[in-house]
Amino acid sequence: MATTKMPIAKALNTSLRKAMEDDPKVLIMGEDVGKLGGVFRITDGLQKDFGEDRVIDTPLAESGIVGTAIGLALRGYRPVVEIQFDGFVFPAYDQIVTQLAKMHARALGKIKLPVVVRIPYAGGIGAVEHHSESPEALFAHVAGLKCVSPSNASDAYWMMQQAIESDDPVIFFEPKRRYWDKGDVDTEAIPGPLHAARVAQQGTDLTLAAYGPMVKTCLEAAQAAAEEGKSLEVVDMRSMSPVDFDTIQQSVEKTGRLVVVHEAPVFLGTGSEVAARITERCFYHLEAPVLRVGGFHAPYPPARLEDEYLPNLDRVLDAVDRALAY
Question: Name one GO molecular function term (predicted).
Fold first, then answer.
């Protein structure tokens, strides 16, 4: 057993290094990923050790980066593309949704595109405009794309490797404000499936379902609720497409209540699909409507206002109280 405590950022860096050591076809591409090591230092040291042919500093051209990665994947490579910030992905949106997502189906299964698009996403770092978006629902809606987001260092390490090994394109959302949260990483473990949810904390009165940066907030909410005698179960979804509805369903059948939490706006967010599906599947088990907690249906605000915009402990606990009041 080789367990080491490390931040999520270090876990991602270690995982990318391992993938590059294991497979010479794994390439890393993006703005400032080489000499600088990425603005969050996720690729720190990789160009020095693997060379400029495998860790490639690209022009500031997201559409060109993803388009080039598609071409490399067609030639047998496994490109890992970094989009420097969430709000920068939209120039590449056309390449991702009309080419990357559809090529496998268009070729009747004969062509695979094993491309990972890494996106540091969501808020909480006091950044300027276009640096704190949560666009996951836009990609989860697109057939042909897998969308995942780790909430802890162990998942960051293993899910990155599993995403790179996948023959399908994976949009890998990295919760940037959690980059420096530390956790134990067992580099010799046998990981579970990439798209399987996990129960992060057992409970009996209500289920909180979240992914990425909001899992920590939900665990804090469960701890606060426990001080008032309420037992909350926390499900880390880990994957937004496909969604492991079975694990959420099993939890809700036990607790009878569900609150879904994410940073993205509630309106047409990932939580909307979860709420609808669980209502269909668990109608006779539910003791209250499925509630959703998320961002407001408004452009992400300036940094001084982001604490008012982002779901926090109080907003999660308010939803818990409302659900338990039924």
Answer: oxidoreductase activity
How confident is the model over 38-89, as pLDDT tens digits? Answer: 999 999 999 999 999 999 999 999 999 999 999 999 999 999 999 999 999 9
**Cα–Cα distance, 210 to 216 (Å, whole number):** 9
Q: Are 144 and 99 in contact (CB under 8 A)?
A: no
Q: For residues 98 and 68, is the Cβ–Cβ distance under 8 A?
A: no
Specify the DSSP element, H or E, that contains 259.
strand 258-265
**Pick the catalytic residue: 104, 130, 131, 141?**
131
Tokens of 253: 């059948």
Of 254, 78, 218, 47, give the one whose Cα is nearest residue 160: 78
Average pLDDT over the chain reads 97
Q: 10 by DSSP, 3-state: which?
A: helix
Instruction: For residue 86, give the amino acid letter.
Output: D
Kind of pairing between the strands at 206-210 and 232-236: parallel
Contact 149, 212 (CB under 8 A): yes
What percent of the chain clears pLDDT 70, i.e. is strictly above it? 100
